[in-house]
Amino acid sequence: MKLDIAVLPGDGVGPEVTAEAVKVLKAIAIQFDHIFTFQNGLVGAAAIDKTGSALPEETLTICKNTDALLFGAIGTPEYDNNPDAKVRPEQGLLGLRKTLDLYANIRPVIAYESLLNKSPLKKENIIGTDISIYRELTSGIYFGEKRLSEDGNIASDLCQYSREEIERIAHLAFKAAQTRKRKLTLIDKANVLESSRLWRKIVKELAPKYADVTLDFMFIDNAAMQLIINPRQFDVILTENMFGDIISDEASVIGGSIGLLASASIGEKHAMFEPIHGAYTKATNKGIANPIASILSAALLLEHFGLFEEAALVREGVDKSLKLHITTPDLNTKYDNISTSKVGDFIEDFINNPEETNLN
Ligand code: IPM
Ligand code: MN
H or E element: which one contains 30? Predict the structure, then answer.
């Protein structure tokens, strides 16, 4: 298969972790006789510094003309500490999501056996957790009208959803549930919010089409607690943009490190793959950032194009690296010198030679 991939490393540790994902994809291409090409684009603060825009036209052109996007991270402390800045790194990411209509953000959360003791949660409560979060990504409060009164004392952000926006991601979430444990939980605040009531109404209407899926509903406040005390009760979670943002960071605690969580952002025409973690600027160029989230995002990319055997090999490599403690300091206790690129090298070696790869 030939795949043209846009690589948008962005800020902070983005370039380092993305380089490991590219390394892994190159190894897969060789092993399975595929042709993967990579084209780099500027995004985020890195793009603002060079062009004045967080999402330069040139980057958008690259993204529109490639099959998939591999995204790193965006943000710097300079911008985080200055929320009033008009040009912001986040505009790069939000602009890509909106322009490419990447409406479904899928965030898998797994409790790896070998990492159960890395989570601050009780082992017996998290063992066996396997959740797929479907977060709506191009609407809701993130994209609704923003207002600030003239005197600067009243501000509002509109949370608006249309039937179409809810239906299209709900269908994907139902379909995903059908391939898993056939349970779908809609997380909302339907006791208070009109937009949540619309979500419930529409999702209930669609349910008969997916009669083999058990549908239930949970308020976001309760869900935040349930995720911590009994995450195994969830299979597929469906939720709106901001609730999904918050609970996916919360859910990362189950896996033991946010450095493990990958995501796919899917639309009708385009697809982007990215770690859910941020730019982690403090770690930039220290070789301590965990590349697994980015490497697993590459596995999601492969699966998106039907390359299941290839993705399975990447996942096996990741599992093996975790089992052998070939991990960065966020997870490691056994060895203290395993760098970002060493983890990538190990997984690359594993792909080249699955039988014989061990720590060397
Ligand atoms: C995420 C991030 C983004 C979001 C930020 C960087 C705009 O937190 O992908 O979860 O809020 O969606
Ligand atoms: Mn987030």
Answer: helix 14-32
Per-residue pLDDT, 11: 98
d(Cα 340, Cα 354) in Å, to the nearest integer?
20
Instruction: Say how far apart CA 329 and CA 303 lie, in whole Å.
Output: 29
| Neighbouring C-beta atoms of residue 214, cutoff 10 Å | 14
pTM for the structure as a whole: 0.96
Residue 62 bridge partners (DSSP): none
Portions of the chain given CATH number 3.40.718.10: 1-102+267-360, 103-260
pLDDT (tens digit per residue) in 215-258: 999 999 999 999 999 999 999 999 999 999 999 999 999 998 89
Give the pair of three-digit tokens for residue 292: 């697994």
In DSSP terms, 186 is beta-bridged to 217, 238
Does an H or E element contain 3, and which? strand 2-10
189 is catalytic: yes
- Ligand number nearest CA of 44 is 1
What's the CATH code, domain 103-260? 3.40.718.10
Q: Which residues sit with their C-beta closer than 6 Å to ligand 1?
A: 90, 93-94, 245, 276
**Cα–Cα distance between 32 and 342 in angstroms, integer?**
23
pLDDT at position 256, please? 87
Structure tokens at 62: 């690259």
- One-letter amino acid at 224 equals A
Q: How confident is the model at residue 357 (pLDDT cuts 50, 70, 90)?
A: low
The contacts of residue 104 (CB under 8 Å, 6+ apart) are: 134, 135, 136, 137, 168, 169, 172, 265, 266, 267
Q: Which of 90, 102, 143, 241 to mutate to test the pocket of ligand 1 (most atoms within 8 A of CB)?
A: 90
**Tokens 């809701």 found at:** 140
Contact 294, 262 (CB under 8 A): yes
Q: What is the pLDDT of residue 32?
A: 98
CA distance 69 to 297: 10
1-102+267-360 — its CATH code?
Answer: 3.40.718.10
Q: What is the pLDDT of residues 81-99, one digit of tens each?
A: 999 999 999 999 999 999 9
